[in-house]
Amino acid sequence: MNIFKSIALPVAILVAASFAGVGALSAADGVTEAVKPASKDNPLKELWSGKKWASETTQEMQDDEFANPSGPWQAIGEEEWSKVEGEAGKSCASCHDDAAQSMKGVGARYPVYFEPWKKMMVLEQRINYCRENNMKAKPYKWESDQMIGMMIHVKSQSRGMPVDVKIDGPAAPFFEKGKEFYYQRRGQLDMACKHCHEGNYGQHIRAETLSQGQSNGFPTYRLKWQKPGTLHRRFRGCNEQVRSKAFDRGSDEYVNLELYLAWRGQGLPIETPSVRR
Amino acid sequence: DRCQDGEPSEVATYKISKGETLEKAINEPLDGKTGDADKGLGWMAHRRLGNCLACHKISKVLAMAEKTPSIKVTALNGKTSSMPLGIHGEIGPPLDGVANRYTEGELRMLVVDPKTAFPDTIMPAFHKNSGFTRVHPDCQGLAIFNAQQVEDVVAFLKTLK
Ligand code: HEC
Ligand code: HEC
Ligand code: HEC
Questions:
Q1: Which residues hold substrate (chain A) (predicted)?
Q2: CB A205 within 8 A of CB B88
Q3: Pick the CATH number of A3-65+177-276 from 3.40.1160.10, 3.30.70.3040, 1.10.760.10, 1.10.10.200
Q4: What's the CATH number for A71-158?
Q5: CB contact under 8 A, A188 and B136
Q6: How far is the CA of B113 from the centre of ligand 3 (A)?
Q7: pLDDT by residue (tens digit) across A148-187?
Q8: Which of B76, B81, B124, B147 could, after both became Cys, cross-link B31 (CB 3.0–4.6 A)?
Q9: Which residues of A are tagged catalytic?
Q10: Residue A96 is assigned to a ligand binding site
């Protein structure tokens, strides 16, 4: 074991973090320091990004702008941003100009309650809403390279900013539904999310270390997938591994679950695009 | 094919009695079957069946793994796979000495349905095929172990003294 690395690194980050303040944290810094949950109702006493339990090589891959394997998708997203498509003859840039300005903080506060739908909306849905209604263009397929690229492009503008979703007002009933989902046992193995990610994080399940199942790094590049994937893809995987029938990406069930999960990580810095095993 | 390893649809009827340490026990072998401990270890190591080692450390099995890193297990569907013996998780308590803590009937009850003893447990029920929420269509109506497999596993657990 390399004592230098394991002691020196956290100290350096602690010092850096205490000067920088939460808002200025870079993607690297959600790791070695726990974040205090914003609400005392949070069942987690301290919040950890899944990065904490990623291997050192995986962490380095995530932190290095040039080694991060999501690079090609990020490039697709940037390109899509100013690509004119659809009958309105517009691109995202026509209305939102420079994403670094207009999209800053957006990824940290989604999902949001969307009045015309009378329900919650996740970022993928907002992007497609703008494509369909404001550009008169075809929506992206949920798990397409373009959607993942655009998600990375938009969400990475909030990198380092703390997750900050609203769960009160009209969002409240949807939050409750998401919470119910989280605690519901499912599938032949009869497990709920909490069985793996609340009571047992940091523990080995076979050779794998369980994390808190936080969403702050999505879309996540998984070495297993050999590409970045959306949060709802991960939800499907976690449902299926307990031998339950998964829901569709973008289903009300997953949208509400996403809201609840974001609240469980309220205060963790956005890490998009993260890298996991 | 999520439940491709020949998981059985029938579950035995059994009588629940009072245990010594635990409230509930199944004192009679399921369907009157006799267990085979060696086979039991195979069902326990199989990732798609017991997968017990994913959560439980067993020192005796770790020691075995030094000589035999993996064992061949033939599932009910006739498929033989090689399963590692040396990778153990830590979600559940080590099973060392578990036969000193519980009676055979209690061990059988724990394998059949551990929620009868630990209502909030992460551990699955291995001989139960209904009462679940939104089971994957491939696994609908199936239990993980049949009566014989439960007895094999209980026979192995009884060696953990
Ligand atoms: C014709 C104008 C127009 C175009 C083109 C357009 N949008 Fe929008 N977009 C809007 C409007 C209007 C809103 C709503 C602003 C609000 O609610 O404050 C919005 C909101 C958003 C939001 C949510 C911002 C927030 O603060 O909640 C995102 C994300 C977004 N758009 C992304 C995109 C992307 C990505 C594209 C291209 C694929 C795009 N938009 C194309 C007009 C447009
Ligand atoms: C049988 C155990 C198990 C259950 C039940 C389970 N998960 Fe997971 N989950 C895992 C494993 C293993 C991983 C990969 C390692 C890790 O990050 O924890 C994972 C990863 C995740 C991640 C990615 C975390 C990251 O940092 O990239 C999220 C998000 C997640 N799970 C959410 C959920 C939700 C929501 C549920 C319930 C619908 C759920 N999980 C149920 C085992 C489980
Ligand atoms: C996903 C995790 C998991 C799996 C898989 C699992 N167990 Fe468990 N097991 C547990 C946990 C956790 C407990 C402790 C009870 C509780 O939840 O408080 C436990 C308890 C037990 C106990 C009681 C131990 C004691 O000292 O009180 C026995 C016996 C047992 N398990 C046997 C098995 C067998 C045999 C298998 C496989 C056929 C198995 N377990 C599979 C998690 C698991």
A1: 234
A2: no
A3: 1.10.760.10
A4: 1.10.760.10
A5: yes
A6: 10
A7: 999 999 999 999 999 999 999 999 999 999 999 999 999 9
A8: B147
A9: 238
A10: yes
